[in-house]
Amino acid sequence: MTLFEKIIAREIPANIEYEDNEIIVIHDINPQAKLHLLIIPKKPIKTVADMSIPDDIEIMGKLFATAKKIGDEKKLEGYKLQINVGAKGGQEVFHIHMHMLAH
Ligand code: 5GP
After folding, report:
1. Domains and CATH numbers, the chain
2. Which atom of ligand 1 is nearest to the CA of 99?
3. What is the pLDDT of residue 67?
4. Residue having the nearest C-alpha atom to atom 13 of ligand 1
């Protein structure tokens, strides 16, 4: 089980910002900005490079839709979205997630 699957299963605590059937959004434990969220599909896809095409395109689109929803709700003027891909791309947790950072 990945760290994020354990958080989804409530085996490890997290500060949950949003959750639905397909996505969970948590606050990063080591924030790099005033707001640092991790937008995570519940489906444990390892990395962008491991996506099944076309099956996983819809859920990845939902990560962006969720970022927009949160940005709209919090009336953010701007934010950064980042996905690290693979160890050499800075990825530490091998369960796809999008960082959402706002100052
Ligand atoms: P990556 O480097 O894989 O793109 O990002 C993994 C992120 O997960 C890092 O920003 C790290 O701070 C965060 N993280 C690692 N362990 C935990 C944890 O137990 N809880 C939460 N909420 N975030 C974590």
Report:
1. 3-102 (3.30.428.10)
2. 4
3. 98
4. 28
